[in-house]
Amino acid sequence: MGFYHSTRSASPTFTSKEAIRRGIAPDGGLFVSDDLGGTTIDISTLASKDYPTLAREVMGALLPDYSADEIAACVDEAYTGTFASSEVTPLVPLSQAPNADGTPTYVMELFGGPTSAFKDVALQMLPRLMARTAGAEGERIMIVTATSGDTGKAALAGFADAPGCGITVFYPEGKVSHVQNLQMSTQEGANVAVCAVRGNFDDAQTAVKQIFANKELGERLAASGTVLSSANSINVGRLVPQVVYYFAAYAQLLRAGAIEVGDAVEFCVPTGNFGDILAGYYAKRMGLPVAKLLVASDKNNVLADFLATGTYDRERPFYTTTSPSMDILVSSNLERMLYYLADGDCELVADLMSKLTDKGNYQIPAELLERIRTVFDGGWADEDQVAAAIRRCWDENGYVIDPHTACGYHVMEQTAAVEGSACRVLLSTASPYKFPKAVAEALGLFCPPDDFACMEVLSKHTGTTAPAQLAGLKTKPVRFEDVVDVADMGSYVEQAASRIAKEA
């Protein structure tokens, strides 16, 4: 991988360290490298490699201006003793495949980290990568991010008390689960700020992008020694670590004897912002035999509609669902996918993004849609279907899944495996204990109004145990109860930066 540039313009260019430190390109686009796929991973060697080894190899290829020693140190810091499994992202076989054709199906558990969500895999890494970028002497980074539920806590956990950094997290008021809310509002650390926003995730994410584009705000912060960056998957440093677990899944399948080298594997990914599944596309470009990338959406099915029609339309009702991390109508990382599948046509991408901003929709050329559909497919689940999928997965496999994963389970039930797929892998993005009431109700259990009582009910019925970091939230004191309008988010960031600088 060489230099990075915006999806909307081929110049200027930046090193990977500069791209990670900035978070978003100066013109509002996302950072991409035209060298993606120039370095491939030898899949014949995967079976012999553990997760840290794979992480060093994959990330070294994608972040070329980090030295091998820097990457190795980041990997050790991020993954030594921080995840429940030595595999980091272990595979669990389902005894009954969620499709009549019976293609062997595995769940990849991405929630074994400190916040019980898949975003830990990347957000334990990003602060380490960020710490090795060079800024001016005395300069502080303020991480500003919007979350639909899981990114916020994972970013807070990763950046809390990180030297030279502060972090401000915004989440949509009333539109995350109670457990997710407590995870953020109880966060410890002198350099953190958490605030609810009156609006939905898209409102908050759009405002964050506007904060990055606000030159006057940037100048005022710079004058006080603060620069802005992001922990959302718009930051390439968030995206790159996620590529690793696709190779790790393949390695585990090889070791289990489920596939042979060269066999194609299909991945189903519950996604809202398109980052997690885009990482799978990066893996495919780097040589992983990916048969298909199956997008699973909830009732906010803008991605499923786009893959079916080629029209992206955010002008539609917004639904608050039991899978809040997917309650998104503007999927930022789709921009990167469009760039690559359109053969690096910056002008086209810039035009499409302008139409999305100005009109709320865009239509891609038919030939581009055809090309996209050779790689991606999609489906969605409504709330009743999500609940039914949770029940069926438990009844058929004795395995408990959260509502986001259930969207994927349903879509896999409704979509035949691609011809030639040796296996299917469903990415499980969160612990069911982050959404205990929704899961317990889906299983037909009596649900007390309190989420922590629901955890106990769920544990007793299924024989599973709530992660300690979730069960322990019950007694943690709430630190943050701020709520602002979307228009006031920039001022909140400025105030947080000032407070954190004084406490540093």
Quickly list its features.
single chain, about 500 residues, Rossmann fold, six-stranded mixed β-sheet, globular, five-stranded parallel β-sheet, alpha/beta, 21 helices, about 45% helix
Tell me what you see in this structure:
The strands form four sheets. The protein has a six-stranded mixed β-sheet, with helices on both faces. The model has no long low-confidence stretch (mean pLDDT 95). The chain has a domain at 123-234 and 477-503: Rossmann fold (3-Layer(aba) Sandwich), CATH 3.40.50.1100. It has helices at residues 16-22, 51-62, 68-79, 120-123, 126-131, 150-159, 178-185, 201-213, 215-223, 236-256, 275-285, 302-309, 334-341, 346-359, 366-373, 383-397, 403-414, 436-442, 451-462, 468-471, 489-503; strands at residues 4-6, 9-14, 31-33, 91-93, 105-109, 140-146, 165-172, 192-198, 226-229, 264-270, 290-297, 311-313, 361-363, 376-380, 421-428, 482-485. It is globular, with a radius of gyration of 21 Å. The longest helix is centred in the middle third of the chain and has 21 residues, at 236-256. It has 504 residues and is an alpha/beta fold. β1 and β2 (9-14) form a beta hairpin. The two termini are 36 Å apart.
Radius of gyration: 21 Å
Percent range for β-strand residues: 15-25%
CATH class of one domain: Alpha Beta
Q: What are the segments in which pLDDT stays under 50 over at least 5 consecutive residues? A: none
Helical segment count? 21
CATH architecture grouping of one domain: 3-Layer(aba) Sandwich
> How many strand units?
16
